[in-house]
Every structure is written in C-alpha cells, then in structure tokens.
Amino acid sequence: MPWSRLSGSISSPKMDVAIDMGNPFLNLTLDGFLKIGTVAATRSAAEDTYHMLKRGNVSGHNFEQMLKKMCKEGAYWGTTAGLYVGTEYGVERIRGTRDWKNAMIGGAVTGAVLSAVGDNKKDRIVIDAITGAAIATAAEFINYLT
Amino acid sequence: MPWSRLSGSISSPKMDVAIDMGNPFLNLTLDGFLKIGTVAATRSAAEDTYHMLKRGNVSGHNFEQMLKKMCKEGAYWGTTAGLYVGTEYGVERIRGTRDWKNAMIGGAVTGAVLSAVGDNKKDRIVIDAITGAAIATAAEFINYLT
C-alpha cells in the first residue's frame, strides 16, 4: 500500500509516538502539528522556567498556568506548521515540482488563513499572506545554504 | 584551493552576482545576507505595492519611501540570516555533526545577539534567545518533513 505509511512520530530518548492517518497528506499535516507543537511547548516551558528561576519560587499555581500556556502555544504553532506542511504538499502535488515556489505559496496560504481565522480585516490578511510567503521563502533559502 | 569557492550569488532571470570572500564562513554569511535580504526587500515592495494599488495613486514620494523601506528591511533580515547561517556553520565545525541541535544553537545565538544589539534588557535577551532557538528548530523540523 503506497498510500499508508508510518508518520506523526516524535523521537525522544523516552518516547516514540507513531500514528498513521492512512493518507500522506494527513500524515504530513499531523507530523507537522506534533513536531512543531512540541517545539513550541518546549519554548513556552523554557521561558516560564527562566522566569521562575529568576523569581526564585515555584508554586503549584505557576505550574498549572505554565501547562496551560504550553498547550495553547503548542496548539497554535502546531496548527500553523500543519497548515503550512499540508499546503506545501498539496501545492507540490498540483504543480508537480519541488522548488522554493511551493514554500512561497504554502507560506502565503498559511499566512492568509491564520490571519482570516484571527478575525483580521482584508488589508491585514493580504499583508500577512505576503509576510508568510516571505518567511517561508527565506526559510527555504536558508535550508539550501546550510 | 578547498577554502575558496564561489558564493553569494543571487540568480534571477536578469541578474547574477557572484562574490567570493575567500572563506566558506564568510561566503555562507554573505550568501545568507544577500538571499534573505532580497526576500525581505521583495516582501516590503509587495506590501507597499498593495497599499499603492489600493489607494490608487503612485507618487514619486511614495516610491522613494518604498525604496528606503526595502533597503532597511532587507538589511535587517539579511543580517539576521547571515548571523544565523554563520553561527550554524560555526557550530557545525565545532561539534563536527549536522543535526537539528546546530539549528537550535544558531537560533539561540542569533536571537540573543539581535536582542542585545536592539538595546534590550537581560530578561528580554534570554527570552529572545529561547524564541530564536525554537523558531530555528521548528524550521529545521519542517525542512525534514517536506
């Protein structure tokens, strides 16, 4: 079955998650959501840990807030990444080629969708689409450099 | 001469620039600066063009401002990219391996340096370093996905 493969895996020394959605599009999107969501949750945790260390006290209340923030940031970054990866994959299938233009289109769509969901005006959505396209293109270029 | 190679090239239908700094570290940094600077300048131009089309008038004054903004944004994004690419290359040389941790360290250094240059307080610099690390790690993961 060429259409089913293992994906959505997070590899850490202690944990390995594998979920198969049975479709490469969904697998990629889920993979993006999980991986980037984890990165964002880790970032949020690191930031809060720094603040706690600086204040010098760790209370249960802080910890609860920290967990909530981790979930919120993880879900947001994860959605962004899933949307971007899914769109880029879709664009690649439609265009039939792999180049930086896929990243540009994926970034533009992601920027526009997230901006529209965030209840922004038409102007702001267009600017966010342009910015999303630029960031995705820049990341793609850096990727070729290193 | 293994240490000299052509780099810093921007390929477009009409333009091809090649500058050799005689050192792979400097070449990569310059390459990052030029490529990402171009992306940022294009983004800035696209944004301003949209605003102009919407207002329906194009004046010389706007055009001058647009050029200035393009240079400013291009230089800022270019510096960020050059710093990141240079740091990642340096980390790769020191660690002797290529993995996502290089991106994480590169992102953290870039975030911290740019934040320190921007005259931020110590707290803000640490948070920016964490955020930079998270963004670079996320970009590296997305890169493996697609």
From TrEMBL, chains A, B:
Q: Does the keyword Transmembrane apply?
A: yes
One Pfam family recorded for the sequence: Tim17
Q: Which domain of life is it from?
A: Eukaryota
Gene Ontology cellular-component terms listed: chloroplast outer membrane
Keyword Membrane, does the record have it?
yes
Q: Where in the cell is it found?
A: Membrane
Q: Which UniProt keywords apply?
A: Membrane, Transmembrane, Transmembrane helix
Instruction: Indicate where this protein is primarily found.
Output: membrane
Q: What GO MF annotations does this protein's record show?
A: amino acid transmembrane transporter activity
Topology in membrane: Multi-pass membrane protein
Which GO terms fall under biological process for this protein? Answer: protein import into chloroplast stroma
- What PANTHER family does this protein map onto? OUTER ENVELOPE PORE PROTEIN 16-1, CHLOROPLASTIC, TIM23
User: What is this protein called in UniProt?
Assistant: Outer envelope pore protein 16, chloroplastic
